[in-house]
Design goal:
The complex is a heterodimer. Helices cover about 20% and strands about 45% of the residues of chain A. Chain A is an alpha+beta fold. In chain A, strands 2-1-6-5-4-3 form a 6-stranded mixed sheet. Chain B is of the alpha+beta class. Chain B is about 30% helix and about 25% strand. The chains are: A alpha+beta, B alpha+beta. At the A-B interface, strand 1, strand 2 and helix 3 of A face strand 13, helix 9, helix 10, helix 14 and helix 15 of B.
Amino acid sequence: MDLAAITAFLVEEGRLIDERRLDEWLALYTEETSYWLPIKPDQTSPHDHISLVYDDRMLLELRVQRLQRPDMHAQTPVSRTFHMIGNVTAEAAADGTVAVHSKQVVGEYRSNRQRIHLATMVHVLVPAGPSYRIRSKRVDLLNCDADHDGIVILF
Amino acid sequence: MIQAPIPDAAALRALVQPSRVHRSVYSDPALFELEMQRLWGRAWLFVAHDSQLKKPGDFITTRLAREPVIVVRQDDGSVKVLINRCTHRGALVCAEECGNAKRFVCCYHGWAFRPNGDLIGVPVPDGYEKGFDARKARDLGLAEVARVASYRGFVFASLSPTGPSLEDHLGYIRTSIDDLVDRAPDGEVEIAGGVFKHTYDGNWKLTIENHIDTVHPRFVHASSVAVANAQTVDPHTDGAGDIGRRQMRQNGMPPDIWEKLGVWTTGRGHVFMGDYHDDKKLVTANADPVNAEYRRRLAVRVGEERMQKILSVQRFNTIIYPNVSFMSQFGQFRVVHPISVDRTAVFAYVFRFKGAPDEMFRRSIAFANVVNGTGSLVLTDDLETYGRVQAGLGAQGSEWVDLSRGADRDVVDQPGVNRGATGTSEIGMRHQLSAWVDYMTAEG
């Protein structure tokens, strides 16, 4: 397990969002993936409790496709985003997956307003050729249970 | 600071005309202040559900209009709503969102209050005059909100000591609460699975108008409708996506479906709209195994005939004016909290039908995420739209908001209940605004 390669993978993932290469971003995810932003700290279930976002592959594809439509009002104009990634650690599991923990600062700028999201992320990666794909991603926002304006960007 | 004079009743009435409303009703900070006194300071407002206050001492903190309050279960089973403000120097006496308390102790000087509001402890009493104990008992308990009443577990409070009873206030719209509660196989519903707290840069009325606006979905939600319809090969779903995609597609129903819907007004600003789902997984009248099991359990309690009657009620959103918007089938319940004239918070809860299959609740959770969620593919475009409406209503060059769709064609459905001439009538908004005038111009 090469921590530098894993870190580079996360940096590349963030770059794809920031450069709005969203189809390439989606291609990093496995066919049975999940993408989850819990609404409370230590939330254990995305099915028995609401979430800021809980997407299975079906919803994640719709999310990504919608972000590329000109009639998505909440992205007219589009947000600029900014991913800064640190504190990356990785732990291999017996089934060959790798659980990657990171701290991320995700900035968002739109319509004269800047928002800063602070996130602890857990990616579960599966090896795929020379790189990885994302089997699941959990994004715990520091202020997950606060009042929020709508959240539309990718994390 | 120069204060504008408070508009008299005639001036307030002039703002709401039969088919149009003046933009200041949404944008004038002085009118907002007046609303807080005359409308939100008088109306019955939803504050809590019984399931949040199961045993004596159980409490939640929330806001009633802009008042911070503690809603707390008493030893005798009743509910009190106390102003969350220490009677000494004014600090909040409770900073928790919910919990169970034997007493509320102020952080500042340690004054302690019973869950019924009585002041029971003042540390270092030596500095007070003789007779302080009597004053303590008489005058220094936590202030209590004037009126509290409940209907089938839904607790409402009014800051005004006078006004119609809750029963009279609800009138016919209570049948929407019946629709929600009657659907539970065990005869009870409970708040479960967390709360969304979303905010937007717009007036509070925009939410309760939008929730009975049957024209907007095809336009506001065009992007989610388009991608949901275009997804012809099914990617993997664990169930969440399936529920979400069905709802998104439903928002794209053709105009004739929307025209066939009903929109009903029932007095005092309350409104409900008919359901627009013909999708067999979103309605309970179908052979889906989860729904079949649910229907079986409901019929065990109430009998087959009554079960059919309960499930034949087809309502989508109900507005209990001014602070509640809910829909029964998926137990979605939204409470509106005005912050300022152009800023609003909406808290969205999910009700679980006690006795129903767990999978049904999971569908309600999936539905909530997609429809009411902070990161929803649907709601986020509503929030964007509210912000644009609010920004536009600041324009001085164009003074009126047009609400003439279906005007002069309302149909009397039964005494006190009117129906829009078509499913896309703006009758609901007009009705809410007529209630606004009534509250704003009432004497006393």
